[in-house]
Design brief:
CATH class of the largest domain: Alpha Beta
Radius of gyration: 20 Å
CATH superfamily of the largest domain: Type I PLP-dependent aspartate aminotransferase-like (Major domain)
Number of domains: 2
CATH architecture of the largest domain: 3-Layer(aba) Sandwich
Strand order of the largest sheet: 1-9-8-5-4-2-3
Length: 354
């Protein structure tokens, strides 16, 4: 089976973990600080704050921007549920708008009409590694005095007009085992705002600036040095990983003819966390045919957030036809750096048989 994802764990990652174990400094320590420094440089920002997961990064990022009960946050329904849960964790209310059928990202043309006096922020999701139209979203945010909290969990290293994901507002990243840079589990918050960075650091560590002096209600959302050591080893190969993903996506785009393939607009730097096609007809049957032929795939995501049972119960129903259509058509194919040329040829052959 050609796997949909395959984390790269080499000698550098193994050695880095052993060095941490031998050091005795297992919790948040010097390797976490070094990882934060490297990550901030990658994103072109002043601050990076490591957390225990992408979900906790989103949660803290929202709280640090003052999001709370009574507020509304405009976001996309076509995303992993953590994007929405993080809003609910703060006591705020998610407000869904539909997505662009070509980019799969939030449609800026629909955002402004969803703004109410309670709207406090926009939470765009850079889905599959493709940055949203940040010019349009920033214009809307500036006009209405809204915060931007970027869900960049799938978009480390992605760019829009030479600015990196995570540098447009408060960026939130996941370092889960299948991500383009992984630490096993973990997250990162990025910002150029000193005050927000300080809030994030306190929120992740029991509200402390000084040990045992608690200035606010905080959480235990710290990253371990074990995770940071893995992430640091991954960063040394990140440029190579990204180049390979882009080459794989270019090959798939050039040779797949029996499905709607993803397109990248000028000025966007896609990092291909997922390579996602659209198939007409019975999508689930197509997934089975691929599996039977030895090609792994994934459906991200079969049920949009606004149709999840507890969301409907809490917020009511939204009419979002594009997201609902995409949820029935998308299939993500392997694009990870460990694919061979033979793997790519097999993927193309089997997809073109659908």
């Amino acid at each position: 089976m050609i796997s949909i994802s395959k984390p790269y764990i080499g000698d550098a990652e193994k050695q880095a973990v052993m060095e941490v174990l031998e050091s005795g400094m297992l919790a948040q320590g010097p390797r976490t600080a070094k990882f934060e420094e490297r990550f901030a440089q990658l994103c072109g920002v002043k601050h990076a704050i490591a957390t225990s997961s992408g979900t906790t990064a989103l949660h803290i990022g929202l709280l640090a921007n003052g999001i709370g009960p009574g507020d509304e946050v405009i976001t996309t329904p076509f995303t992993f549920i953590a994007s929405v849960n993080s809003i609910l964790f703060t006591g705020a209310t998610p407000v869904f708008v539909d997505v662009d059928p070509e980019t799969f990202n939030i449609d800026p043309a629909l955002v402004e009409q969803a703004i109410t006096p309670r709207t406090k922020a926009i939470l765009p999701v850079h889905l599959y590694g493709y940055v949203c139209d940040m010019d349009a979203l920033q214009t809307i945010a500036d006009k209405h005095g809204l915060k931007i909290i970027e869900d960049a969990c799938q978009a480390v290293g992605a760019s829009f007009k030479d600015k990196k994901a995570g540098s447009f507002g408060t960026g939130c990243f996941s370092l889960y085992a299948t991500k383009n840079i992984m630490s096993g589990e973990g997250g990162m918050i990025t910002t150029n705002n000193d005050a927000i960075a300080q809030q994030c650091r306190m929120l992740r560590n029991h509200g402390m600036q000084r040990r045992y002096y608690h200035d606010m209600l905080g959480y235990n959302f710290r990253m371990t040095d074990l995770c940071a050591a893995i992430g640091l080893a991954q960063m040394d190969r990140f440029d190579d990983f990204t180049a390979k993903r882009r080459a794989n996506a270019e090959y798939l785009n050039a040779h797949i003819v029996n499905a709607v393939t993803p397109k990248v607009k000028d000025g966007y730097g896609h990092v291909w966390h997922q390579y996602t096609i659209r198939v007409m007809g019975d999508r689930d049957a197509a997934v089975k045919k691929l599996a039977d032929a030895g090609v792994g795939s994934g459906v991200f995501y079969p049920v949009p957030a606004h149709q999840q049972g507890y969301i409907v119960e809490k917020l009511g129903r939204f009419n979002l036809p594009v997201a609902e259509q995409l949820a029935n058509e998308v299939i993500s194919l392997p694009v990870h750096p460990q694919l061979s040329q033979a793997d790519l040829e097999t993927i193309v052959t089997e997809v073109n048989k659908l």
